[in-house]
Amino acid sequence: MLKPASIQFKETDIDLLAEVEGRVALLVAPDGSLDKAARRVNRLTKGAVARLVEVKAEAASTGQTFSLAFPVGMKAESVDVVFLPRRCTDVEARKAGAALGKIRSGAALTICAGSQKRASQLALGVALRDYSFNAHKAGEQEETRADVTLLVSKPEEFNHAAVTTQAIAEGVFFTRDLVNEPANVLTTTEFAKRIQDMSSLGLEVEVLEEADLKKLGMGALLSVGEGSESPSKVAIMQWNGGEKGEAPLALVGKGVVFDTGGISLKPAAGMEDMTMDMGGAGVVAGVMRTLAMRKAKANVVGLVGLVENMPSGRATRPGDVVTSMKGDTIEVINTDAEGRLVLCDVMHYAQERFKPQGMIDLATLTGAIIIGLGHEKAGVFSNNDKLCAQFLKAAEAEGEGAWRMPLGKAYADQLKSRIADLKNTGGRPAGSVTAAEFLHRFVQEDTPWIHLDIAGVASVKADTDYAPKGATGWGVMALNRLVQDMCEKAE
Ligand code: BES
Ligand code: MN
Ligand code: ZN
Fold first, then answer.
1. I need a surface site. Which of 11, 28, 78, 83 has the fewest CB within 10 A?
2. What's the pTM?
């Protein structure tokens, strides 16, 4: 696994700036005024910084970056000027950092952040954007990124933030690696192993095997993996950093390591993208990593259903009826609507065993959500306005797009079956909503619940603000913040 850049905060000593190697970044306010460090670099470079600012400041947008390559008077290979207001939001600072992360290309980076209060967000932006997945490219298996140093006036104020920042970046990288990994490498067994390895961080990890799942009655989940050589599993990660006895927040993830569609086989074109169909489980694992790494004072349990949806002589057929752990029978109209079959059993189990104070499931559940919201925002479905508002606020603060969608009885009625308690598809209209209503049926009356359909945002074909193309890690930061807001309160 690629380790994100390690971040250090040091006290600014402008007398050392001439000797800094790698890249030196300066923050310049939109009015073009230079702080102490920028003035020193300007003097060293014989006025180049002031000339750049004079030409660029007026039209520059927040976070935009301009580079002076191999500046005279300095050892650095580049001076990168970033336009950023002194008082900016977390997201603005992070995006400015991401712009630096994009251009650093392996060089050490020193950011002159002065008295910028959001310095740690700048660092996080650099770390998040400076990601690549080279596990399968010969000779390119980097283990670490070059350090990021922030020169600030009061480094001691950032000690706590540095730990959090590192934890977030590692959680996001962990999710991205899982989502990017091909399905012949990331089998259900390998996924469970990577989760198990997190017990070294203090997470309590259990893996339920097929025999256990059969005993529990998870007939819906098991029906999905029937056609695969890889055994179905449920992995459970507990982080108990909160008050003893306080009900946990439950995070449930769809972990379909590959989705061929099963007997209702998908068309060949684009099927390779279905390696990301474990994206929900990937986010759950990434959040748990972040919470453990920063020793969150909260009780959170992550549960992921790990299966592979393959056609074979043993695979579930369209028309088969399966029985969920809850007891409801399901007519499988389309074996490609498999995510809900996995989630309904894990969600039921999560509530029965953990009596959570809230439950959030994440899934690359429907193509229809991509038609509705594209790759900008995830679909948010909830039975609880308060929890939903809290989540939307957290997502907004982290710059992760999210948009609430409706639920309703009329949609649920689309799932009525002639021969069973319900069927697993509701037809083309409102495909994402009927999928959410399917899950809703397995949510207990008093459980505040959110379903996040992340099919459009888990992995994308163009660079985003925080990530190069491919897996984004969407949701790790929003959920981490939600845990902070909901469970950790004032410290
Ligand atoms: N994993 C897919 C959804 C998906 C599509 C994720 C595109 C990411 C990108 C899911 O299992 C699926 O196949 N859903 C079907 C449901 C339908 C058969 C009711 C879909 O969306 O077409
Ligand atoms: Mn499918
Ligand atoms: Zn799927």
1. 11
2. 0.98
Res 490: pLDDT:
58
> What is the four-CA torsion angle of 380, 381, 386, 390, rounded to 10 degrees?
-20
- Is residue 472 within 8 Å of residue 464, measured between CB atoms? yes
172 backbone dihedrals φ, ψ, rounded to 5°: -65, -45
Domain annotation for the chain: domains and CATH numbers: 7-153 (3.40.220.10), 169-487 (3.40.630.10)
Pocket test for ligand 1, best of 223, 309, 316, 336 (most atoms within 8 A of CB): 336
Q: Is the CB of 364 under 6 A from ligand 1?
A: yes
Per-residue pLDDT of 296-313, as tens digits, reads 999 999 999 999 999 999
Structure tokens belonging to residue 197: 């390895």
Who's near 190: CB < 8 A, 6+ residues apart?
none
Query: Is 337 close to ligand 1, i.e. is its CB under 6 Å away?
Result: yes
Fill in the amino acid letter for 216: L
For residue 276, which atom of ligand 1 is closest to its CA? Answer: 8
Look up tokens 């350090």; give the residue.
147
Predicted local distance difference test score (pLDDT) of residue 141: 76
- 46, 32 Cβ separation under 8 angstroms: no
pLDDT under 50 in the chain at which residues?
none
Q: Enter the tokens of residue 361.
A: 């499931």
- pLDDT score recorded for residue 392: 98
| Beta sheet of 321-323, edge-to-edge order | 321-323, 329-331, 422-423
